[in-house]
Amino acid sequence: MKLFIPREHGAWAMLIIPYLLGSLFSNTNWTHFIFFIGILSFYFATGPILSYIRKPKLGNSVVPALLLYFLIGCIFIIPVLLEYPFLLLLFLMISPCFLINLWFAKQKKERLFINDVIAIIGFSFLVLVAFYIGNGEIPTQAFFLMLINVFFFIGSVFHVKTFIRERGNKRFHKLSNFYHGGLIIVPVLLGLPFVALALAASSLKTWIMPKKNLKPITLGLIELGNSVAFVLLLVLFI
User: Fold this and answer.
1) Quick check: 238 pLDDT over 80?
2) 211 falls in which pLDDT band (50, 70, 90)?
3) Are 149 and 21 in contact, with CB atoms under 8 Å apart?
């Protein structure tokens, strides 16, 4: 059986980081871990779905992996949903984002910037999900962290695309630099220097990293390190 594990490594970070933030800033418990296994399994299920959308000739070969991931996901998620039925409402709010992502994949336009932004917004709802599991409510802080998470990953998309899809596009590079400048300046002007600090690493790497001869694996490792720094700085200073 072919497993069709998702290859979009950036999406792994988009899945893990917001859920981790919501777990760390709420009352962390074992339910967070159990629910995450279910979420991760459902994310794995997108692998066979997207593979079929990209290559319909795969036919029924994607079904075993899809059923396996779906079954594991249900085993770990349904008990938590029975305890916290409000989570169903949050998932209904998230679902349009991923339906749009599937539509872009069907149109073979999944690399578009807007598609990445929509995916980021959808994944960022996991901050609220984890907060609700931890606290039984969604405080203002949860929405605040969700917003910071959105801005962080949009910056990451800008950065990665300057090395790959938009390499050589000077206008896009200037827009990326302008955006990353805003990640520092705007929070400072709003009296939120700790947010500027948490996002500073993203901006600095964008400005100082060489734009040539950088291997994708190197770029991925740098983004991984940047994500870890982002979480640590938020935990330390908020």
Assistant:
1) no
2) low
3) yes
Q: Which two tokens stand for residue 124?
A: 């960022």
198-225 burial, b at 16+ Cβ within 10 Å, e below that, comes to bbbbbbebbeeeeeeeeeeeeeeebbee
The amino acid at residue 71 is L
Could you tell me the pTM of the whole model?
A: 0.94
**Average pLDDT estimate for 20-43:** 96
The radius of gyration of the chain's CA atoms, rounded to the nearest angstrom, is 18
Tokens found for residue 132: 């609700």
Helix crossing, 113-135 with 86-106: angle to 10°? Answer: 160
Contact yes or no for 162/229 (Cβ under 8 A): no
> Would you place residue 58 in the very low, low, confident or very high pLDDT band (cuts 50, 70, 90)?
confident
- CA torsion sign for 179, 180, 181, 186 is positive
Q: Which two tokens mark 59? A: 């036919």
Q: What is the DSSP string of 73-137?
A: HHHHHHHHHHH-THHHHHHHHHHHHHHHHHHHHHTT-TTSHHHHHHHHHHHHHHHHHHHHHHHSS
234 has a pLDDT exceeding 90: yes
